[in-house]
Amino acid sequence: MALWSLxxxxxxxxxxxxxxxxxxxxxxxxxxxxxxSMASNGEDAxxxxxxxxxxxxxxxxxxGDGKDGQQVLEEVxxxxxxxxxxxxxxxxxxxxxxxxxxxxxxxxxxxLSKPFTKSVVxxxxxxxxxxxxxxxxxxxxxxxxxxxVAIKLCDEEINxxxxxxxxxxxxxxxxxxxxxxxxxxxxLCKEVxxxxxxAWAKFNLGKIQYLxxxxxxxxxxxxxxxxxxxxxxxxxxxxAKTQKQLDEVEEAQATIEMAIEKSSKSVERQxxxxxxxxxxxxxxxxxxxxxxxxxxxKNSILRQARDYTKLADVLVINGDPKEALRMADKLNYEFKTxxxxxxxxxxxxxxxxxxxxxxxxxxxxxxxxxKIFSKSQCQLDxxxxxxxxxxxxxxxxxxxxxxxVTQLVANNHDNQELLEQVSNLYEKSGVEQNIxxxxxxxxxxxxxxxxxxxxxxxxxxxxxxxQALESGPNNQVININCAQAYLMMVISNGxxxxxxxxxxxxxxxxxxxxxxxxxxxxxxxxxxxxxxNLAAKKT
Amino acid sequence: MNSNNIELSTIMSSAIHDMKNSLGIIxxxxxxxxxxxSLSSNNTGSLDLLRQEGKKLNNNFIQLLSLYRIKNQQYHxxxxxxxxxxxxxxxxxxxxxxxxQYNLDLTIACDEELNWFFDRAxxxxxxxxxxxxxxxxxxxxxxxxxxxxxxxxxISIMDDGKGYPEEMLSNDVAQQRDIDFHNxxxxxxxxxxxxxxxxxxxxxxxxxxxxxxAGIEGGGKFTIFLP
Lengths: 539, 227
Fold this sequence. Notes:
The complex is a heterodimer of chains A (539) and B (227). By secondary structure, chain A is mainly alpha-helical. Chain A has helices at residues 18-29, 42-51, 69-78, 94-100, 118-133, 136-143, 147-160, 165-178, 182-193, 199-211, 215-228, 233-245, 249-262, 267-279, 283-296, 305-317, 321-334, 339-356, 359-376, 382-394, 398-411, 416-429, 435-454, 458-471, 476-493, 497-510, 517-538, and strands spanning 11-14, 36-39, 56-60, 87-92, 110-113. Among the domains of chain A are: 11-133, Response regulator (Rossmann fold), CATH 3.40.50; 304-433, Alpha Horseshoe (Serine Threonine Protein Phosphatase 5, Tetratricopeptide repeat), CATH 1.25.40; 441-538, Alpha Horseshoe (Serine Threonine Protein Phosphatase 5, Tetratricopeptide repeat). Chain A is globular and about 80 Å long. Chain B has seven helices and nine strands. The longest helix of chain B is centred in the first third of the chain and has 33 residues, at 3-35. Chain B has helices spanning 3-35, 41-71, 84-94, 96-101, 120-137, 166-170, 185-199, and strands at residues 80-83, 105-109, 115-118, 141-149, 152-159, 201-202, 205-206, 208-212, 221-226.
């Protein structure tokens, strides 16, 4: 034990009490730690973690007014700034541990409850460092989202180390779900459940049923998890999602409200409540949820422009257009450098003025939106594009509306539902539209590209895909085809760093698309194989 | 329960919570004082006593708070998979000072790869209190052991002291509704242990605790069974 030292380990201590920071620092220093950073609030902690690599993070759960320890953990994990090799220990006062220790989706490596002795802290840290040290390969695979390799490494741990078997069975089942290997995942979850009812296994079974569209089975499973473990917050989130799929929207709202009662500090959960309350026309709840979403997302990357526009929309409905205008202005100010957000702000303003009966101001706001759109060539998401089109058509600017719609269709030529909504908008305004022609054009380019690729004319196919991406850079179908063409190019002509970067960009744009997931997985793992071979050659 | 009662119990629980935090600071300060070696040798004994009593107080607070939450249905056992050797080693570390002070040997009898499912915070809380008590009654030796017997995890703490008094052994611990709290910490500790054991359930089986004088050379033996 005497030989063990924390010398050279990069350590971060997060606590709002100076006294506690000093106590912890002195404790660790007595074990040789000489590279200790400190943060006194959640915002600083997130910032520090994003800009530096740490071996060990000791973070207090209770950090005063701002973000709490759990939010810090969630944010850095979501941002991909917490490598698997870092030891993250949540320090809790006994009373809060009851809330935190429930099964949350993002778990720290360990909890340490106050008061603790020096020797206990040392023993915990030592064990965690040893564990992470023996899992370097797995850490690498997980950090690169290389799931198939990570699954193999989990198997090794499951077979060789009884100490961590349960943990790696859980991790493996999650990775199998990500890889869409549902049957295998199901088998694993059922196997571990024979001896004992395990909340995570039942929860993952529910998730699998959901992903296979067996919503009634999923609902039953999630409800059982909640009954057995009322603190299993993710089960509420998934139950609400399931109820929404079953058109039980009121039940879904009740479920998500229960989750918020248990754990109120999640920005995403508040946003979800806002969406679902909107759908239920429960505008009072919607307003409250939107306000909380904004307040909790303050200074966080989790805040979205949509949080302002949705609040403005509901404020108009609830009869407070003045406050709605204030929100649009705040959005405009806060996202100064993002043309998409400024554009949303302008469109929202135009809607508010229309609701107030102020046509001239409304017209001005639309002009502003139009200016931003033409000048900055921004790529709008579906919601913003639809809203802008609606406003433009309402003010008779068909030419710009057509431009917006051209972009929208170029980015989503295979989204039938969306295209129908656009058609309906035009129909309502009594304006002729050329949506089908744009769609046909993109489809033709895409089909030709695929044909060329099949016959081995890689260069020519890339030319076509790139041409289509010029008008619709976010088109997921084109992006995945283009990624495949680039990959074939790399395989036939050898490594080219520019091409590898292009593949990554294309793949990133298709991530999260259900229909394309299987292809994404295949191409992504081929991509990582190339990268890993490259790395192996270098060393 | 009328509103006055609810208020009172809430106030009690938050007051205990506050006291516990102060105690945490006191305990840390004691550690710093003893590390600085700034005290004359005849005072270190007093410091050890302070620390020992402080720890006891802390364990009591945790038990009270946990009982309050369990009884109010605010606590749901957080069952996860844990390594027994790590847990036993940790409570041995927690009680390092008192073991040294009473000049006691501690043996851990447990397979290093033994894992089981339980609520770590609750079970460690129990074991901590029982070990702390055992230290007061033991002559020279204490043994911590854990193994699997049929479908239960069995954790025992054995000492070589004079054992539990006859009247405690004749009572079923789980039934001690009107437990003899005149026995002080031991009584509360055992009551808490049986409540926590019962929170642990699997396949229609619940946990339970047993006390006997089957410890080392007829000393006290505490055992908790977890399904």
